[in-house]
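Hey,
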Amino acid sequence: LKFDLGTSIKASFLPYNTRRNGWDVSRDNTWVLESRDDPDDYDAEIYTITNAKDNTIVSQFKKLSGYSNLTSPLLSYDKKLVLVPPTFDDGVMILDLQGKVLFNLVTFKGKKLEGRVIWMPDNTFLFSQGNDLYRTNKEFTNATLVKTFNFDTWGNFSVSPDGSKLALRGGNHLWMMNIDGSQLTQVTESNWTEVWPVFSPDSKYLLI
């Protein structure tokens, strides 16, 4: 579903489909990327990029997998690459728009990658491993430590579209910090548990 905050109108965005595993929308709202089960191959998925305005197909390809066919791929900010979150067999993958694997990272510092990954606006990406958050370079050949967190549990991190801030869940509440790891500040304090902060397109608000 989609919800217009200005008019309070709720409408359908993608029709219900039991084969859909994940979806993403480009930052300029022009493309929709969907991953679906391949009906003819249990160990594969079909990735489809569709023009959001006229529903024409921009690209469609079969993504082969070791034994994991439940992925939620993400379009890069410039719409040239696809980031596939880590699975047990395949790790993190970077694909071009025809499905060619440009980069594959299964382990980091001797451990398999299992956490969340997200694009940065400059086509680097962030990934978590244990209590640590890392950022790659643009060539995906190196990763530097951004922050080590002291929470019992943490995650659900998202980056602001301007690339300056990071929001995340730490314990039961949400926190925000500069992208270099400085000024970590708690931003919610209810009696409940807050999860999944997402920045607005202008980087001024958080959707929780």
